[in-house]
Amino acid sequence: MQFKGIEKRLESKYITRYDITYETEDHKEKVYEMISRDKNIETFEQLHSRPVDAVVLIMHDESGNRILLNREFRLAVGEAVYNFPAGLIEPGETPEESGKRELKEETGLDLLKVTDVIRESYSAIGFSNEKNVCLVGVAAGTFAPSDSAVEEIEAAWYTKEEVRQLLASQPFAARSQAYCYMWSRPSQKLE
Predict the structure, then answer these.
(1) How far, in Å, CA of 109 to CA of 126, rounded?
(2) Can you count the helices (H) and strands (E) in the chain?
(3) How far apart are CA 63 and CA 93, in angstroms?
(4) Cα–Cα distance between 32 and 22 in angstroms, integer?
């Protein structure tokens, strides 16, 4: 693959759509459509050398026996999906500051401590260069409705058994599904 150029096609409030032109190994020119949180991509380097866009919160209760999940209606798929609390990092915020703010906004809970940070990864490599970082930690407090009128979120704690039941019957976002699958498995070797 040889990069030939990138052209901005549509800029909106939260995302910008680009066409990436490249040449395949058999010397055919192709155009790849993508979206980005970055409104000013002009070079190949800018596709990947960019800051983290969002934070994902993988929170456990103080006992460590329950995990926090949001059941949120997502317009892009037209149904409620189980997912971890998450949100965009505001200018000047660290991921932990953003995590504390997003957790409070979406669930009413407080972030007590971060026990691990899963380094940056891409949200949806098939069509976007959005990056996020996952904070693993402990949260506590009293649930409250999302403070945003545009977010329909039901946050709750789930045991491993409850998560296994959800995984068998409910739609999940991929990252949340993978983590919950591994977290909820009985202690045994993967086969």
Answers:
(1) 33
(2) 4, 10
(3) 29
(4) 8
DSSP string for residues in 36-58: ES-S---SHHHHHS----EEEEE
Specify the 3-state DSSP secondary structure of 24.
Answer: coil
State the DSSP code for 170. S
- Helix axes of 160-169 and 174-184: crossing angle, nearest 10 degrees: 140
Share of the chain above pLDDT 70, in %: 98
- For residue 154, the cross-strand partners are 71
From residue 8, alpha-carbon distances to 20, 122, 127, 150 in Å are 9, 20, 14, 28
CA dist., res. 119 & res. 97, Å (int): 16
What tokens does 122 get? 């891409």
Model pLDDT, residue 151:
87
Q: For residue 23, which amino acid is it? A: E
Q: Is the pLDDT of residue 65 over 90?
A: yes
- End-to-end CA distance of the chain: give it in Å, rounded: 36
